Every structure is written in C-alpha cells, then in structure tokens.
Amino acid sequence: MVDSIMQYQSEIWHAIGETFTMVGISIIAAIALGLPVGTLLYLSGKGQLFENRVLFAVMNILVNVVRSFPFLLLVVFLIPFTRFVVGTALGTLAASVPLSIMAIAYYARLVEQSLLEVPKGVTEAASSMGASTLQLIVKFLYVEARSGLMLGLTTSTISFISYSTVMGIVGGGGIGDFAIRYGYQRFETEIMIFTIIIMLILVQTIQYTGSFMARVLDKR
Amino acid sequence: MISLHQVSKTYVTSNSRFQAVDAVSLEVGAGEIHGIIGSSGAGKSTLLRMINLLERPDEGTVIVDGNDLTSMTDKHLREARRSMGMIFQSFNLVNNRTVSGNVAMPLEMAGLGKKERAERVREYLDFMGIADKAEEYPSRLSGGQQQRVAIARALVNHPKVLLCDEPTSSLDPQTTVGILDVLKHINRTFGVTVVIVTHEMNVVTNMCTTVSMMENGGLINTFKAEQGNTISSEDISRITVGLSRDKVRDTHG
C-alpha cells in the first residue's frame, strides 16, 4: 500500500489542494452571503421585526430550489452562469461557483434556524434600548446565536467537502475525483481506501474543532 | 411625564380578532411609582409596551416627556427610547456577554467612549451591589442577581422613565422584597418615574404611589394615594370592587 501511495504522492497533495480551494471559497461565500441571506430570512419571517411576506417567500423559495436540486444537475445547470462569472466552465475555480451557490443556500437555512433559537425577549430588550437594526443583528442576535452559527458552519463545511467530491465532472479535481479516477477506475483499491481515510480524518478534525469552538463560545 | 391618549391595539389573526387594549387614556406624573394591575390577558403588558412603542398602538397618541412618540421617525424614536429603561420578568440579558458587557450595551448604543463606559458600568454595578460579579456570565447568577444586572443596564444611560414588566414574578418572596427596595431607592435617588406591571398585590402595597386597574383591555380605575403614602390593601379592595367612588377617579371612556 505504501508504495503505491508514495508513487502518487504529488497527485494526492495536488488533489487535497484542490479540495481545500473549492471548500475554502465555498466557506467564504457561505459567510459573506449565506449569513446575510439567513439573517434576512429570519428578520422577514412571520412575527419577526421586519415581517415581509413577499421578501420572505422569494428568498425561502430560492433557498429551497437550490437545495432541492440534485447537486450534479445544479453544476450542469449553472454552467452558463459559471462561464459568465469566471470566464470558463472547467477547472477548480469554475467548480467553486456552483459549490458556492449551494453553500450560500445551505448555510442561510442553518443561520435562520440558529437565529430562531434566540429568545424573543432579547430582541425586545434590544429595541427597548434604542438599538438600530445593525446593532440588533451584530450586538444581540449574532452574539446570542454564535455557538449555533459556528455549529452550522461546521456542518456546512463537511457537506461542502462531500459535494466537492463530484467536481471531477467539470474538471474541478479534488480528493474525491482523485479517488474515483485512480482508485476506482484504475482498480487501485488501496488508493481508494487511503483517500477515504484522508477524508475521514479531515471530517473528524473539522467536526471536533467546530464542536470545541462552539462549546467555548457558548456561555448561556 | 407619560401621557397615553385613547390608545388601542387589536391583534388580528386569520380567524380571530383580539382587542388587547381598548381606547385607554393614562397619565403618569413625574416621580410617580405607578402600578398597573389586572388579571392575565387584561392588557397590562401591552399597555406598558405602548409607552416605549415596543407595541405601536393602532390608534391614539403616546407622549413621553413632552414628545409625541407616535409621530416620530425611527431614528428619533430610537433616541427617545434611550431615555427610557425597561426591565422584564425573564430579565432578557444577553447571556453570551458578561455582566459588565450587558450593562455597557445601552452606552454602546449611545456611542459613549470606552473609558467613560467602563466608569459608568462600575458605578452602576456598585450601586446595585453586584460589582464583584462584573466579569461573570449571567447564567452563573441567581434570578435576583440577574434582575439586578438588568436594572443596572436599564439605568446606566440615565433614563427619566423605568418600565417594569412583572419584574418580580419569577423571583421568590425574599428576593422580591430586595428588588422592590432597589426600585424604590432608584425612584427616590434619581427621581426616575417608575411604571410597573404586576399581578402581585404586595408589590403595589409595598411601593406604588398610584395604581391603575385594567380589565378586558380597558382601564377601570386609577387611584392615587395621599401625598407621601403608598397604596394600601384597603385602597386595592376598594378599586377592585368599585366602592368609594368619591375617592376613585374613573378614567374609563
């Protein structure tokens, strides 16, 4: 086993690098756009501070549509959009586009759920102090929901890794693509097992770190 | 100090209408400790929340310290709210911030500098007797201590009005007495006008100088104790059964 792994060492490192690139970009998209979308979903929801049926319905449907797409089809469906954004539909960077779209929708829903856990009284206290909307969000909601937001990001990251494994279809590469091409299609079972072990360790580490940080952040 | 004029609020759901507050007018003088009593569902909490417009009345006007809150822009309303403190039955502290972090929040909203914030926070934690808890998180404190933190938070920005929504209902009798003493002390020391919603009659007899009784969304009676006195239990039984009309100012309708 060691021999064949040594033989592909540079390919493995390269594949891990691609996975990190795709997942990293998706995490950035999740935080930069998924967090605001999730917050807007929460604020415009029924009985909330900025209840707005139309806005809520539009975003709710968008998030659901993205999440209900079989992911491979989403990748194919988004090819024109990807080409428009990064100039090409192939490669690691191009693969990050559909992954990021999924990431935004996925994390937005988890953000909404975490914010719904914040007791109503906290928003009421914020309003009674004369908090602006931004202050309400940043100083009250995100502070009270921070461990849930962290756990949501952990769950999301692990899903992004899983989604990223099919990116071979648009030449995105990554560890999953490596496992399929070298391990499965070339019948090198050892290689496949080895990459699965890498994935396992990666996912375990992320979950452990995420859970630990959520615990540290939670003072409730 | 506070003047509610013919305020109403109706909650409409798809299959029902509930008139929480029905054309209520209420005057609260500066420096009063004004109790609002009534059975649950009478509209006491809704009425209290109208004073700082946490509940916006469907009709009527709310005037606090000479300003009509109902006609204000959002920005001015936020500023007006900063001169009113509010405490709650469930304390509503931010549990992921320390005690001093919680008390500092209204000052952050008001844009005070860091150094001045720290000084003010310390001053009010001292005043409330919880200076040793400054760096603790709220979940490590008892209910009475948490309510003290909430009171410090409500007072730190020097409000003229303190709104209290069942502040002692989740506390044991002994702790309740302690909190009521603090509220009286605040009223005397800073001249803060206190409006307190409660269903506990001993809260009224312990501290209120005026009491209003609500029923089914309407204000039945307002009764003012003699100068320097608090409401007695006889006063309460009088207004609840509607006796001694000469002493009772009927503000209904």
TrEMBL record, chain A:
InterPro entries: AA_ABC_Transporter_Permease, MetI-like, MetI-like_sf. SUPFAM superfamilies: MetI-like (SSF161098). The chain crosses the membrane at residues 20-43, 55-79, 85-108, 149-171, 191-214. It comes from Paenibacillus macquariensis. Pfam families: BPD_transp_1. It is a multi-pass membrane protein. This is D-methionine transport system permease protein. Its main location: membrane. It is found in: Cell membrane. Keywords: Cell membrane, Membrane, Transmembrane, Transmembrane helix, Transport. Belongs to the binding-protein-dependent transport system permease family. It comes from the Bacteria. Residues 16-208 form the ABC transmembrane type-1 domain.
Automatic annotation (TrEMBL), chain B:
One of its GO terms (molecular function) is ATP binding. Residues 2-241 form the ABC transporter domain. SMART domains: AAA. The keyword Glycosyltransferase does not apply. SUPFAM superfamilies: P-loop containing nucleoside triphosphate hydrolases. InterPro entries: AAA+_ATPase, ABC_transporter-like_ATP-bd, ABC_transporter-like_CS, MetN_ABC_transporter-like, P-loop_NTPase. It comes from the Bacteria. Keywords: Amino-acid transport, ATP-binding, Cell membrane, Membrane, Nucleotide-binding, Translocase, Transport. PANTHER family: AMINO ACID IMPORT ATP-BINDING PROTEIN (PTHR43166), METHIONINE IMPORT ATP-BINDING PROTEIN METN (PTHR43166:SF30). This is D-methionine transport system ATP-binding protein.
